[in-house]
UniProtKB/TrEMBL annotation:
Record-linked HAMAP family: UPF0352
Gene3D superfamilies: YejL-like (1.10.3390.10)
Matches recorded under SUPFAM superfamilies: YejL-like
Protein name: UPF0352 protein CWE13_01165
Similarity remark: Belongs to the UPF0352 family.
Top-level division of the source organism's lineage: Bacteria
Pfam families referenced in this protein's UniProt entry, alphabetically: DUF1414
Organism: Aliidiomarina shirensis
């Protein structure tokens, strides 16, 4: 079942393009880009998500990431 976002695809695409542009301008290698994105996710969880919800949201995030990668194989 596809996940329906409350945010429109255009806004998501714009944010993705902005982030990818930053990595491209910096010539960041893939491992640095992934590590940086992981640190951003951790920061968002720690700073903007109540402690009692962090584990569940992190687990859900990880599962969705794994599902999105599996679809492309």
């Amino acid at each position: 079942m596809p996940i329906v976002s409350k945010y429109d695809q255009e806004r998501q695409d714009q944010l993705i393009d902005n982030i990818l542009d930053i990595f491209a301008k910096d010539k960041a290698p893939n491992d640095l880009a992934l590590m940086t994105l992981g640190n951003v996710v951790t920061h968002i969880l720690q700073e903007h998500v109540p402690a009692q919800k962090r584990q569940a949201i992190a687990t859900q995030f990880g599962q969705i990431l794994l599902q999105s990668v599996a679809k492309e194989q």
